[in-house]
Design goal:
Keywords: Antiviral defense, Endonuclease, Hydrolase, Magnesium, Metal-binding, Nuclease. The chain is α+β, with helices and mostly antiparallel strands. It has one domain: 2-Layer Sandwich (Alpha-Beta Plaits). It has helices at about 15-30, 45-60; strands at about 1-10, 30-35, 40, 65-70. Strands 2-3-1-4 form a four-stranded antiparallel beta sheet, with helices on one face.
Length: about 100
């Protein structure tokens, strides 16, 4: 399934800036950055649950915001891209 991870971490304090870096590292280890605080992750259900637990361990729910959008393959999800960034197609052919 394709998962869209969006976050907004309060960076007014030094602790907030550390949380922001840790949240980004968790997302970078699982998916690809498509905007500054938005990642696309191609995962199975177990990986999704692990990702969610890891992110919840990093944020402060009283100051930060985390949103995870699950787009199951069975729905035939479609992503339309506009602008200069082009995401990697994980299901396309691998060209070396």
């Amino acid at each position: 399934m394709l998962v869209i991870v969006c976050y907004d971490v309060n960076t007014e304090t030094k602790a907030g800036r550390r949380r922001l870096r840790r949240v980004a590292k968790v997302c970078e280890s699982t998916g690809q950055r498509v905007q500054k605080s938005v990642f696309e992750c191609q995962v199975n259900l177990m990986q999704f649950e692990t990702l969610e637990r890891s992110l919840l361990a990093e944020i402060d729910p009283t100051e930060d915001n985390l949103r995870l959008y699950r787009l199951p393959d069975s729905r035939g999800s479609e992503v339309r891209e506009h602008g200069t960034f082009r995401a990697t197609d994980f299901n396309g052919p691998l060209v070396l």
